[in-house]
Each structure stands twice: as C-alpha cells, then as structure tokens.
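Q: I'm teaching a short session on how sequence maps to structure, and I want students to see two examples side by side rather than one. Could you give me a first protein with its sequence written out and its structure tokens following it? Keep the formatting plain so it prints cleanly on a handout.
A: Of course. Example one:
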Amino acid sequence: MKPPLPAAPIPSIYQDAQHYDLLAQMTAPADLPFYLRQVEHQGGPVLELGCGTGRLCLPIAATGVETIGIDNAPALLDQARAKAEMAKLDVTLLAGDYRDFALQRSLALIILPYNAANHLLDLESIDACFAAARRHMTAESRFILDTFNPDPKSLAVDPQREDVILDYHDPHRQQRVVMTERNTYDPATQINRVTWRYQIGGQPDARVDEIDMRVFFPQELDGLLQHSNFTIERKLGDYTGRSFGSRSCKQLCVCRLNGRPSRG
C-alpha cells in the first residue's frame, strides 16, 4: 500500500471565501453551459473535484441530478454550504483531498474544472488524482479535465514585471481595488508561482496572495492521461465545442476508461 500523500497546503486566497467569490465573479470563465450539456448527456451522479464555493456544483445540483463536491478549503466549503442551504439544494459537499478520495461508488461524470488540475504540482499528485477518479468510473463514465493551454511567451516574462489585472469596486469595503500580478516560472518543475498584490483606496495593502500552478503542455497532458489508462474521447479548445488546436486557449479533455488493467 502506498503511503498517504502529504497534506496539500491551502493558498491564502482560498482561505477568504468572500474575497474568492468576488474575484470569481470577475475572472471565472463562462463554462457552466458546457458542463450542464455534459450533465444532460451523462446524467448523474456527478462529482466536482475542487468545488470551491459551489460556482459549478450548485447550479448542476439545481437541475435535479445527484451532485457531490469535494474541496480541501474549509472556508470555501462553508460558503458553498451556506449557498446550498439558502437555495434549498440537495447537494453533498465533502471536505477532502481530491488527489485521494474514496466514495465507495461509481459516478457517471467526474469533472476537474477551471484549472483545478494545475494544483497537482508533482507526478505523484497527478497519478493519485487520476487513479482516484478512475476507481469511481465504469465503462460508461466520463472524466473531464479543464486546464489552460500554456503560452511559452507568457511563461518567459520577467519575474519582476508586475501587471494590473483587475481594477474594481469592492462592495464589501466600498473602495476601489487595483490588483496586480507577477509570474515566476520554473522550467525544471513546470511550476508557475503567481503573486497577487492589492492597492485599496489608492494605498498599497499588506495582503499578498501567492499560488503555485503546475503547467501542462498539450502532448504532456495527453500522455499523462493515457499513462493513467484513460482514452481521450474528445479534446476541445473552448467551451463551445471546437476541437483543440495550436491556437486554442483551453485544453478540455473528455476521457473514458480504456479498458486496460488498472495501474493503481
């Protein structure tokens, strides 16, 4: 038996659900219609890995399909539960590590949406997550992974360069907030450290958020999925269903089991 994985750290941005939700309203992609189409096709039960505050799993649950969400950030889960209670939704929200989960059942659809895969920082974590998903699938199940298609030029930017990425009114503080971003990419590990700083009301704020993101290049990602006994049924480049190509911004992999003996 493999030893348990060390606990995954929870970045500071995931410890403030109110702030996270506000940013998600401005930055999250228009991916919900895509996932609702997949749910309509596959049916339930549906499992979302890295469900956060419920941006996807709650609307999915609202369709009447049995829905489960897993996340390791208590603050985000508390926010998701509060939203579900307010909307009177029947949804199961579990605290856990989506690299290693055991629900003792099969699922029709498992989704790893909006760059949640990029929190799998090493091969051990990637293999563990894919293996856990695989253990909950049948021949009819589907596993969908959504990550960005990396732009080599953006990875090569000066790590001292700081760009304004958001300029918005914070309704909770009732102040203008300017958010800047700095990227430091390590080619050896393929990890990009993203640093966010804030100016609030025209003054630098003490808050600094950092998050590490594992970058997946297209052929590498395909190989990792195939190594984990998945067949990529479709690889899409956006949420409208266009096939993946060299100019695509997204890598949307819709996978099924390939039927070979499991590696773990």
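Q: Perfect. Now a second example for contrast.
A: Example two:
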Amino acid sequence: MTGRTQRWREIPSERSPALGKFVTAMRDLKDCTPLTQERVADASGLAASTYSSYLNGARLPKEKDIRAIYAVISEDVRLRSETLTSSLDELIALRGRASLCMSCPQRGGGTPLPGPGSPSAEAPASERGRPAPRFVRRLARKRVHIHGSRRRTAAMPPRTEVPVPPAEGDRHLTAAASPALSTELALLHRHQTAGRVRDTYMLVWDRARKITPEALPEVLAAYRASGLEEAAEALLRTVVVERDVKAVLNIVAALHDGHQYADAQTILAAARTDR
C-alpha cells in the first residue's frame, strides 16, 4: 500500500469499540489512495464535509455511501496495482455492528454513547423526560418523514405467498408465518412507522440471541416478505455475536439448505469481523 497516510484525529473514548473499528477501517481504506478527501468525496457524490464526518466518527454512513466510496478508492488502487486493506463486505459488516452498538446494550453491560456531549441512549428514570440522543432523533425524524402518511395506520399483515418464482430469488417467504412470528412482524412494523429505531434494534437483538440455526431462514424470509429489509440485514450481522465457530457453521449450513446463499456469505463476513 503506497497511498498517502495521514495523521488522523484520535477517536473519542466515548465512542463504542465497534464504531471505533469501523472508523479505523474507513481511515485505512482512505490511506490506500493518494487522492484527497475532497476528490474522493466528489467522485462518490458526497459533500467533502460529509465524508470528513464519516472519517472522524461523527456520523455513520449509509451503506450506499460506503459502496460509492469503496468503488472510487478501489478503482484508483487497481490502476496503481496496489492492494486494499478491507473488502467491501467487511466494511459493511463493521458498519452493521457499529449501528447496532449505537442502539443496543453492549456485551459488557454498558450503554453506548452516540457521541461526545450527547445524552445517554437510555437515560435513568430521573432523566427520561430529556430528549433522545441526537443520532436517534435524526434517524427517527427521517423515518417519520418517510412513513409519516401511514403513521397511524394498522400494521401490515405478513405475506403468505412468494412475491416472485423461487428460481428468480432466494430470499423470499415460501410458507405462512407462525402466529408468534406474525406478532413479532407486526410489532416491528409499529416501531418502524412510529420512528422508534432503538426499540426496533432491541427486538432484532433479542431475536438474534435466541434464534436457532433451523429457524433463521424462515425468520429472514418473513422479515423481507414484510418489507423489513433493514431488520433482516441487522439480524444477519448480529446472529454471530457470542457464538462459537461450530454454531456459525450450523447457521451457514441451514442457510445453504434453504438456498439462501447471499445470506450465508453475509454471515461468514460478519463472523470474520467478530473474531
């Protein structure tokens, strides 16, 4: 790697370890190219200040922004016959872990901080009247804006049919969801339409801790068939946390048996990041 290595600002100690790993990986990727931040941002369709906030850990990028940045830098590296420090799948997996740690309890029992000067994501009883953290409020406003027209409507019922023929996709529901799963889907929809991002991720986190390898393909398909794509991706990247290699291989085998090969690849990428 012969990019232009620069001295980076120290990541605040208040940030979660998962966010620190993601920011470090993004910085290492930038160091692979001699292009300036401004040129990378411009080629990626981003404002220079937005890209800078990603590299400083002030904001968490969307997955499409990561893909755009990676495409620009990887092309420059390819032309110079150099190598990259991370794959795209590894960066996306790190981003998923960082997103969850900003909304869910950490393994050590602590509560992650959205950023310096921001209130705790889960304040004690004496502080529950205070506003939510800035990161959560920003996501909540975005979701209310998107789904505002149906904020008070009833939750969507789970789909019971395959949206496309099985030969055209491997991530679709092929049977009716169980009553318990239907209740979970309805609850996820209520959280999402109300902008309760933290409650959504808490429910996904709890499902990831308890799910068996055999049940994972059905739950993933039900999430996607109900329009909960983000919840499905979060479940994939969280289910490997605190599981040993044998358990991860059992999950991958179950996904292969269900012909969900793309999901199996995501599980393997998340497992490599978690180790």
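Q: What should students look for in example two?
A: Point them to this: Residues 63-79 form the longest helix (17 residues). Also worth mentioning: The chain is about 55% helix and 0% strand.
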